[in-house]
Design goal:
A hairpin with a 2-residue loop joins strand 2 (36-40) and strand 3 (43-54). Helices cover 12% and strands 43% of the residues. It has one helix and six strands. The chain has 101 residues and is mainly beta. The longest helix has 12 residues, at 9-20. Strands 1, 2, 3, 4, 5 and 6 form a six-stranded antiparallel sheet that branches. The chain has one helix at 9-20, and strands at 28-33, 36-40, 43-54, 57-66, 69-75, 87-89. The protein is globular.
């Protein structure tokens, strides 16, 4: 790609997660990775991973972005490589615990 993802991708991701994670308010320590350009089942998209704690268990969620919209999402699978990413605090999601670093 010639340019990076839409600069508002963090807002897009937060709004989407608040819709699909019905109990997101009970999760803690939200963190987000930088977007990566990947080829997915939807074609070339930006992939960003969100990591959080669900009752003490670390979960990874993968979101595939085209511009400022989410075109696919799921709990991350091994091929998403979310475990290998660097994460940053995700201030657009509520958090009650310290980051997982």
């Amino acid at each position: 790609p010639l340019a990076g993802p839409d600069p508002s991708y963090r807002d897009t991701v937060a709004n989407h997660l608040k819709k699909v994670l019905k109990n997101y308010s009970v999760y803690d320590s939200f963190e987000i990775s930088d977007p990566r350009w990947v080829h997915s089942i939807k074609g070339w998209t930006w992939l960003t991973c969100v990591r959080f704690r669900d009752q003490g268990r670390v979960r990874n969620y993968a979101l595939f972005l085209d511009g400022n919209r989410v075109v696919d999402d799921r709990f991350a699978v091994q091929t998403d490589n979310c475990d290998l990413q660097t994460y940053y605090p995700f201030d657009r999601m509520p958090t009650g615990l310290a980051p997982l670093h």
